[in-house]
Amino acid sequence: MGSPRAAVLRFAGLMERKLVVNDGVKPGWRTESDEFLLRRLRDEVEELAQALIGDVDRDVTSEAADVSNIAMMLADKRMPSLGDRGHER
Ligand SMILES: [Mg+2]
Fold it and tell me: What pTM did the predictor assign?
């Protein structure tokens, strides 16, 4: 597999910026239940739907990053640990 495509890197940067906001505020997602994360994912999907209705690009990209971060958390819980620096700061 080659380098991630530019669109993926750009979006990953947005996801990371959204995660940084919660550094030191929320515990790491690995201790959260699947049920809690799935509920949050559904909430974020609804926020994305509302953002699409509002049709403001910044809101849509922000909510898309929120959806992706929660989905990433559910997947990350099932992948080998990357150590403290891998999941939270
Ligand atoms: Mg949101």
Answer: 0.89
